[in-house]
Amino acid sequence: MTDQVDKAQRIRDSLTRRYRAERRFRFYGLLAICFGLLCVGVLFVDIIGKGHGAFQQTYIQLDVTYDRQILGLTDTGDAQQWALADFDGIVKQALYQRFPGVSGRTDRRALTRLISSAAAFSVQKRLREQPHLLDTTETLWLLADDDIDTYYKSLDDAAGPFTGRVDQRQRLWIDDLQSGEQIALKWNSQFFVSGDSREPEQAGIGGAVIGSMLTLVATLLLSLPVGIAAAVYLEEFAPRNRWTDFIEVNINNLAAVPSIIFGLLGLAIFINVFGVPRSVPLVGGLVLSLMTLPTVIITSRAAIKAVPPSIRQAAIGMGASPMQVTMHHVLPLAMPGMLTGAIIGMAQALGETAPLLMIGMVAFIADVPGGFTDPATVLPVQIFLWADSPERAFIEKTSAAIMVLLAFLIVMNSAAVWLRKRLERRW
Amino acid sequence: MQASNLLVILIAITAVAYALGRGRALVQARPLGGIRALHSLPFYYGMRAALWCAVPAILLLGTWLVGDGQVINTLIINQLPDHLAPHSATERNLLLGSIENLASGALDQKSADPHLLAAARQLDTLSAISQQLMGALVLALAVLGGCWGWLRISPERRARQEVELVFKVALLLSASIAVLITLGIVLSVLFESLRFFQSVPVLDFLFGLEWSPQTAIRDDQVGASGRFGMVPLFVGTLLISLIAMIVAVPVGLMSAVYLAEYASPRVRGFAKPALEILAGIPTVVYGFFAALTVAPFIRDTGDLVGLAVSSESALAAGLVMGIMIIPFISSLSDDVINAVPQALRDGSLGLGATHSETIRQVIFPAALPGIVGGVLLAVSRAIGETMIVVMAAGLAAKLTANPLDTVTTITVQIVTLLVGDQEFDSPKTLAAFALGLALFVVTLMLNIIALNVVKKYRERYD
Questions:
Q1: For B186, which residue in chain A has the nearest alpha carbon?
Q2: Residue A158: other Cβ atoms inside 10 A
Q3: Is the pTM of the predicted complex or chain greater than 0.95?
Q4: Other CB atoms within 10 Å distance of the CB of residue B303
């Protein structure tokens, strides 16, 4: 009797312990999920928090006089004079007029550092478009220097403004401008259209985006046909033999080879043996297509496998040859699935950096590329380059470029999901 | 003629050949009683003519583009006078480079050697001739091929079989490209590595304890002897991968378990795609995150506690790499956990085990091979991961197991050695390929083991 009571008691005791263990285990699982989600959250908040400022840029309002004397521009038809005209000079003059109390060389030099070197170009462009403005005065918003930009954006920070290279005098001038509402943030459209620059306030992702597009087009044109053809062969025509097995093992292994190895391949074979020029979207596309090929093949095979055998049997029954069955029936039905795979492969290629470093797409390129054989860089490599730059203003630019890259990726992946839901047929 | 223009013209001719071939088949069939008298559909006759037109011409174009530079270079080198003739491959490349620069006007033509100047002129004329000849020959071949294909059309010709054979061969070749890529990787990495091992012994490379690839430019330079021992790199790689695994395996595994066994469909429908976002983020973004957010955070925390943490610590890189790998492990484990037969679960629950006891004592052992395979694949990814470590880990090759210290990895060194302009003969550059070979071999072995483990496991329950 006591023995049984004892046993029941022991079981009851162990039950509370076991239930506690159960709850603990469940809590660990929840903790793991929360950690993962927290990482996603922190990553996005961090990037957006750092980068949102880059979509606006600081401009300073000045009264610019297109002074014929300072410009040295007597004849507006003379290209030589345009090239030599001192637009820097009139920008400086405008600054001196705005702050008449500033004298002395060091003070004046500090004053001219408020404005970006790109301001002179925008003034030149303005006068080129409207030459009749010569010798008149106009109120213009001019691009501020990156140090000023960083300082101005951080004025409201809880930890106090980031002064960096901005000194006391410059801060007073900015206060002065601020009280006259002559300094303001404006939408930074330049960021989306211009190429790379050593000056953060002039740097944009336009060149990198175009480079990425060209590289992706090259990748798609190379990997999609070959990938689909390989998938069709392996699913529909391949006899069961050693060669086929060997091909399959190779594809599975290639899918797990580190991407940097593909860069080594591109460097050793495309550039050194075949002499393709470095840094061009064509060779970038070649390397990335080798890298995405396994993905495209594997997803295409899955799409072909999903086409029910009854379709094939019906077509064969109507007298179609195996090639006709594939081309007329299987392939069109598997197309949506294949396209989904292609989009996923392209998203992978769009985010890839390491192999492109190997083939020299890491060079500093300020021009927007115009074709497959122009030197170019791509968005992830641009991010890598900017992340390495010492200027603080580049942190903001880098984060903004990351936001653009992530936006592209989200659009592509959503398109893949949408395509799968919309077009894929349930049999 | 430019190759791209040539290609466009070729496509146009091919289209014409298709139309003509199809038309001829129809014309021949008309007196015999319509297309029923043809062996194949008219499409195949047209396609056959088009293939005859395009395939030989494109093959010729490809060979020409690959080979003409070599031929022209050889011709020019052979015509140089004896005192200029190169003795080694390097000298030859140097000479060709200066001739090319002369021809393109990048070098000053006035101060150049008259023989070289003559060679540069010849290079110009030869290139022009080659371009024109290529255009003429390719187009001629296309037209001839098209005509041949067109003339040989007759109602009895088994055009479908012939066209389908060509298609099938094309499909087979496409599939074989995968093998070709592997071969290309092995050959390119192996070939350059062998050149590297001529100057650095294999054993020194594999077991050397010191890595400092700075080779001396001048003989009298101090402290730049060039040491190529990869052990510190390997240890650094393993250290960072280990940290990554310590983060990723428990988190990935537990989230997979929770999602597969506990979560309600609504939580699962939200949490699974949200975790998978982590898999889609480019590695360069993780690198930026590691270098600018995580590393300073760890350093500041270390300062608070009184630990000296390097600003490029292995911990920061490993931690972020772990975050990157979480979805990889969780989705692979999710698959294998779901593949465990329901009967095993029911049996265990029926015997009175709690849910967590079932998971730990029944499902884990059953799913273990699959999980191990997944973890091995993840390790291979961590070892080959480049951008995070390039941006967040250091360059100093230290032989240390301290996660707060700075270490370097194989991939970081490959990137450092190869980015920028470099000559291809120095052991410094070739070392990158030797490292690439080591990386390829290690990841390949891990992949093969992992794939086999996963495959064996699948066979058991399917």
A1: A265
A2: 4
A3: no
A4: 11
